[in-house]
Amino acid sequence: MNECTSRQGFFSLRPCGEPAATSCATCGRMVCARHLSPTSGFTQCMDCTARGVEGNVLNPGGPQPVGDDREWAYGYRRDYYRSNSYAPFYDGDGDDDGYYDDYDMRSFDRDLGATGANAAGTDADDAPDWTDS
Amino acid sequence: MSASSLLKSLSDEQKAILAAKKVTLNRPADELLTLLKPIATFDTVAAPARKKAGCWAGALFPIGVIAIFIALGQEGTTRIILFGAAGVCLLIAFVMRSAYAKLKAADVSDNLAAVVIPFLTILREDVPATEPVAVDIDLSAAESSEKKTNTIEPKSKGYPKITTTFYADPWFEGSTVFADGTHVAWEVIDRLRVTKKTKKNPRGKIKTKTKSKLRSDVRVKLGFPTKRFAPTRGEIAADEKRHEVKVAKRAQGTAESPQAFRMLIDVIADGYRSVEGNKGGAR
Prior knowledge:
The structure holds 2 protein chains of 2 kinds. Chain A is α/β, with parallel strands linked by helices. Chain A has 4 helices and 6 strands, in the order E-E-E-E-H-H-E-E-H-H. Helices cover about 25% and strands about 10% of the residues of chain A. Chain A has a 4-stranded mixed β-sheet, with no helix packed on it. In chain A, strands 3-4 form a two-stranded antiparallel ribbon. By secondary structure, chain B is of the alpha+beta class. Chain B has 2 domains: about 110 residues; about 160 residues, no CATH class. Chain B is about 40% helix and about 35% strand. In chain B, helix 3 packs antiparallel against helix 5. The longest helix of chain B has about 45 residues. Chain B starts with a helix and ends in a 6-residue tail after the last strand. The relative contact order of chain B is 0.11. Chains A and B meet through helix 2, strand 6 and helix 4 of A and helix 5, strand 4, strand 5, strand 6 and helix 6 of B.
């Protein structure tokens, strides 16, 4: 089964990994239902909507999430990377289709990076420390 | 949707948050947003409604009282009409005053809508769906007596009288673990200076002006796992498990447009700029 090709995250990006529901009407990439943009009538992926490919429908400059908040987050992410020269880390395979080339991502060392603990987003091997709640 | 119907639609837990004006929770970001967003929406809608209710109550009450006094000097039908009009004015003023009091009691800091909701919306993208986000949020007004740190009283008894009051409001703390294994903890402290200046003009009229200045301090601690991140600069403290990065930022803003959301994003981004992918193995 095809996986969603959207990249999730803000400071570090990672593949969404959910099963794809359809393809984006604009870029043609496979995306899951969660990454379809409500503003476009669920025909476009959130990244394409954030890019304003079919009209600049988002207001990423404002701090208040407008409309669908996940969609706002994708618009804000794009705007933030561009206006602050922020290069996020990317935890995944290479960018085959070049869709995210303009994000200027930094990579982890794959051999060291893809551990089970990190993939799960927790540090199961660590004892509690100052950031543990 | 009106403010009162939004208030009615809130769950018991949300109403309890409005009453306590404090949120101490440890839940996934999605759940936090589901809980807090309706409160923020209510607060945003309630602010102009509260102001409107206050204005109507303030305007209609004196009109009603004046109408009563005028009615006392009249006779016949005019008197009855004026008493009726006064009664309607006072009744509407009473209803508006009650609505104002109810909305005022449920008022929470604008920081919820302007800072907390957008910040959690961004964090949700970096935090795995099941990972909890611990938050401790104080949504009460910064200008409250328990947050007062110092007051400078006027030096002389004459005019102008200048009273400066300082408040410290540590209103937002939290921590979580990002999907890349980074531990993040943050703290936002608003420092408010309120200057009240009372002047007397040559005609003897006394006027008071109040000015406030807000300064936000944002502190973030990031614990980057050494297996995946290496410091780009030498000064970052590192142990076997983590590189610890502390970033702080201070900015001035206003109560109407708080800067803390953008500052939180900026300081975490600065922390991420201080590391690179660990290509040399665990240190």
